[in-house]
Specification:
alpha/beta; 5-stranded mixed β-sheet; 13 strands; 4-stranded mixed β-sheet; single chain; Conserved hypothetical protein from pyrococcus furiosus pfu- 392566-001, ParB domain; 571 residues; 47% helix
């Protein structure tokens, strides 16, 4: 039983404990108001201290840090305190239990307090769980958050006031993230922060189910893997899946209530390794099918988005999109063997026949049997360049403030544009609608009642910028960027004073957007220059004549084989 005594203690004799993970900002309005109350009425509820374990005559604060700080800020010399005789383990539990009842305790602060207490008790999760009335899984999840959450995420939740978009996230969100390998956590952070600027729009209103869905793009059920799980040869540097620690079954109690659930749903936690093995298995499959059939065309089951398309092109080179072929039977004339390289059917063999429209769209790289003319190649390269110009212009729109507007009357311009194209709310409402919550509701109301036209114009401009970004967004194939988007880009660039021609020229000089050196060795029709036109024409015409003759001979033979001969009869 803990012994307690009550008395007034000099403020200078009390020292803060490093065990309290709750952060106190003495500049907030609530704290300033608390100091004013203490000056008027003093400290009513005593703080909790213990004799300092290392400094004789001093006391270590175990509970009531905000009251202590407010008393010190108010200039009090003495404050009421309850003194307890407690060892390190008991003192850690006292601080933990004190903070458990605080409504304003941040998620990361709670996790740090739990982890510290478990550490003080020698890793005894069971004891801590029993003392605070929680189950062991609840405690383990918080300990795991502190031990495995990447720095980029800890920085956000350690200064949550600077990242208001994440204020709705709970420790369950952090627990889902902390399970992932560090580089996967970093990638997820980049996706939310950089791919969807500004102000982490994708974080606002993100439920734990939403987060699980997003993480699911990087995590995969091992039971659904195409390859044999004990195969360690796919990626020699990586272990076989059955021996890898980066799977949920390696630490099942962090994921599931029982071990049998873990066995039923073991998941890969390393998305990079998963994709690497998937590609390695597909490449092995391509090699095997080519050896079996002599030739093989690679196709997509579903139309890939830009990022997936780039990954597929990098991994497999040339392939056909779903609109460039039709599925046929093996016996169909002109049918060729093909293999899917994406979607659920990846690795499956089928037979296809290229469609008539394949020469215009739907292919990556060179379509088998056809050379791409230089004119078409240049058009696709320019479309790719414009896709990057749109991305660059979107970034400049996001950074542009109202002073960047080049029109003579910015007030009228922004009002007309917002009325014509629409704008977005400056605040995210309780239903979770995505917006740009950089301006408080109180500030909006204050400006609306004032005569500050400059501020009002700035607000209207900020609400209109997402519309401009939407007008510049294109999610189709980058080699088919629509002409209409170039026209949109022209007037938007003029609006904010961007030289679009200079931007296009800059993009043309970047790696991946320059004219390939190999084009200098091609004729206008896309054929190699070392192949003479006359020879090509002669070979093509000769091939057509031979094919027509062979077809005619086959038709005659088929007709003869079906004729019947009447037997002669003697009368």
């Amino acid at each position: 039983m803990v012994t307690q005594t009550f008395r007034e203690i000099a403020v200078g004799d009390i020292e803060l404990s490093g065990d309290n993970k709750r952060r106190t900002d003495e500049k907030t309005e609530t704290f300033v108001a608390m100091v004013a109350n203490v000056k008027a009425a003093g400290i009513v509820q005593p703080v909790l201290v213990r004799p300092h374990p290392k400094k004789k005559g001093k006391f270590e604060l175990r509970a009531g840090e905000r009251r202590f700080r407010a008393g010190r800020a108010a200039g009090l010399e003495m404050i009421p305190a309850v003194i307890v005789e407690a060892d390190d383990q008991t003192a850690a539990l006292i601080t933990l239990l004190e903070n458990q009842h605080r409504l304003d305790l941040e998620s990361i602060e709670e996790a740090e307090q739990i982890a510290l207490t478990v550490d003080r008790l020698g890793g005894d999760v069971k004891t801590v769980a029993a003392r605070i009335g929680k189950d062991e899984k609840w405690v383990r999840m918080r300990v795991n958050v502190v031990g495995h959450l990447a720095k980029c995420w800890r920085d956000i939740f350690g200064q949550i006031e600077k990242h208001p978009m994440f204020k709705t996230w709970s420790l369950t969100h952090l627990g889902l993230i902390a399970r992932l390998p560090e580089h996967v956590q970093v990638d997820l952070h980049k996706e939310i922060k950089e791919r969807y600027p500004p102000y982490y729009d994708k974080a606002w209103g993100c439920s734990t189910r939403d987060l699980e869905t997003r993480i699911g793009a990087s995590l995969h059920l091992l039971s659904k893997a195409s390859w044999t799980l004990n195969d360690g040869t796919l990626i020699p540097k990586a272990a076989a899946c059955t021996e890898c620690p980066k799977r949920s079954g390696h630490q099942p109690m962090l994921w599931f209530e029982a071990v049998d659930q873990a066995k039923a749903g073991d998941q890969c936690l390393d998305g990079f390794c998963w994709r690497g093995k998937a590609n390695a298995w597909l490449k092995r499959r391509v090699k095997d099918l080519k050896n079996e059939h002599g030739s093989l065309t690679l196709i997509t089951k579903e139309y890939p988005d830009y990022n997936e398309g780039e990954e597929l092109a990098k991994a497999f080179g040339s392939y056909m999109d779903k609109y460039a072929y039709k599925i046929v039977s093996k016996s169909t004339e002109g049918a060729v063997p093909a293999m899917y390289i994406n979607g659920k059917a990846a690795g499956q063999l089928t037979y296809i026949k290229p469609t008539a429209a394949q020469s215009d769209s739907g292919t990556r790289g060179r379509t088998p049997g056809r050379f791409t003319p230089l004119k078409e190649r240049q058009a696709m390269l320019d479309a790719k360049r414009w896709a990057q110009v749109l991305i660059d212009l979107k970034e400049k729109v996001e950074k542009a403030d109202v002073t960047a507007i080049t029109y003579k009357d910015p007030n009228t311009a922004v009002m007309i544009l917002a009325a014509g194209f629409g704008n977005s709310p400056l605040q995210t409402d309780y239903r979770g609608t995505l917006g740009h919550p950089k301006i408080s509701r109180q500030e909006i109301e204050k400006v609306s009642k004032s005569k500050d036209q400059a501020k009002a114009l700035a607000f209207l401009w900020e609400s209109f910028k997402p519309t401009l970004e939407h007008l510049l967004t294109y999610s189709g194939p980058i080699t088919q960027t629509p002409k209409e988007l170039k026209e949109e880009a022209q007037w938007i660039a003029e609006l904010i004073g961007v030289d679009l021609a200079a931007t296009f020229k800059d993009v043309c000089s970047r790696k991946g957007f320059t004219v390939p050196k190999s084009w200098s060795g091609l004729n206008a029709d896309g054929t190699p220059k070392d192949q003479k036109t006359g020879d090509r024409k002669q070979k093509t015409e000769g091939g057509e004549r031979k094919a027509a003759k062979a077809k005619k001979v086959k038709a005659i033979e088929d007709t003869e084989s079906t004729e019947t001969i009447e037997p002669k009869t003697d009368v």
